[in-house]
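Self-study notes.
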Amino acid sequence: MVLRLMFVALVSLGLAACGVSSATPSPSMSPGSPPAPVASPSIGGSPTGSSGPTGSGGPTSSGGPTGSGGADPAAIGRAFVEALASGDTAAAEAMEDATMRTAAPGAALAKVWGQIVTQFGAFAGLGDVTTEIKPPYTNATVQAAFANATVPIIVTVDANGRVAGLHLGQPVPAGSSSPSGSAAPSALRAAYVKPDTFTESEVTVGSAPWVLPGTLSMPKGDGPFPAVVLVAGSGPMDRDETIGPNAPLRDLAWGLASSGIAVLRYDKRTKVYAAEMAADVASITVKEETTDDAIAAIELLRATPGVDPARVFLAGHSLGGYLAPRIAAQVPGKLAGVALLEANSSPLPRLIVDQFEYLASPEGGADPQAKAMLETVRAQAALAESPDLSPSTPSSELPLGIPAAYWLDLQTYDQLATAQNLPIPIFLSQGGRDYQVPPAELAGWRTALAARSGVSILEYPALNHLLMAGTGPSRPAEYAVPGHVAPELVADLAAWVRGRT
């Protein structure tokens, strides 16, 4: 769960991660942290249209005028990133449109760049620039080299040649190439992945106007196979849930497929349709952000040849795990079980406070930004849970600047009671080093589910929020270290799925 610091209309996973271009309130339910860097920083209402590392799309032209009032978006994008890299944030701010200047003035841009450098290492220079037209915008993707990775920095340019958005593409760790389905280089594969045992194909999830690109991992051999829909955390996540050099959902998909389980994963609506959702941001809830598309994915997987429709499961990570009981309750009789991976039992506003408190503490690194924001966040979280909250409550008074509609919807959701009433098996995993959904959250689940059968609760003392092993207190910088989902978790989840009949 990544806390985001501000929104542009709503800056979700603020300067640290997904932000305004997400157009969706994505509070703290994605790998990351409040003031900390995560995989895909994003500011502004840019329509990226990206389909993730294994999807279609991508740059369609390189350099030259491609709209933007006759200006050269490639040159504008390069100049903007050069200004950030040189520390001339005043010049960068002068290139922004009015909305971006409000959301990301020079001081904020400096923080963004500092977070990128912290995550990916010292800046080493700029490479090629490509452009892609997404009317009325043009995305200029600037390849920026850092000590530990090459990072596509995507600058969205409007029709007047002003910078209207900023976010990161999928980083490529130094010394490796971009992954492409099951043929990814071995350096990007966990040891438990057996690429010769499954195939991958592109699929589409949902229907117009929210068609999403996805990937189906299908075991080789005779089916029908049990199958899993993977649901990502908050923010404009791609199908792999790419966080810096890590891709937890890709690891899970490949690990489960290597164990004879079909898996469907897909890009989130907040990634593919950022601009469209930004137009109606004040009314967006988790229904539009997550649940509707998860239900569409379940229907698609149940109808897929080679899949046993009686053995389709849902596995949600972070925000996806928190919402898994709600999703399952909306598709009675269509799921054989749900897996909640690092899911909070506390209300979301309280979890946000816990995250800020941790990052402000010595154990969490005593982050000065978290300390400075702590009292404000506490007051905002209290209002988000209060009966005084109304549709007219200003978003500036609510956690992370997320509009009231999002919090009003969550006031009606009790994940514990919803899970209690599910007539299907439940799998819960909890990492002992997860500071975003700390181990204390497991107590609520244990109490709520103690009286019902079919519940498997597994603890993994060494795992962080990305489901990856480490030592010592977990901090945001750990997410920049390449790793893979722990083999024991993959094995346990696979055994649980195969064991359900």
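Second protein, same conventions, sequence then structure:
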Amino acid sequence: MVDKKKVKKPAARVGKNDLVATVAEAAGLTKADSAKAVDAMLDGIVAHLAKGEEVRIVGFGSFAVTKRAASEGRDPRTGKSIKIPAANVPKFRAGKPLKDAVNG
């Protein structure tokens, strides 16, 4: 039997619209302008990662691309062995101020 005290509740989810509203309120912008700003930031991060560049945001964290090697896996439906191709994978590493804010 599972100890109910140890079962984690799912975290509240914040979507893009919630972030846009937060930025609008904090910066005194309209929601339309805030949506453009959030989109531009996300597009910028994606563009730099696509070029293989690391994106560092001081006080927040770093985004980077790492290479994942090819491997073998199993098809859960059939149990047959399948090849998983190598891929570039985006990673995020939280900075100390972000870690402290979350744990504080």
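Instructor comment on the second fold: The first strand starts at residue 55 and ends at 57.
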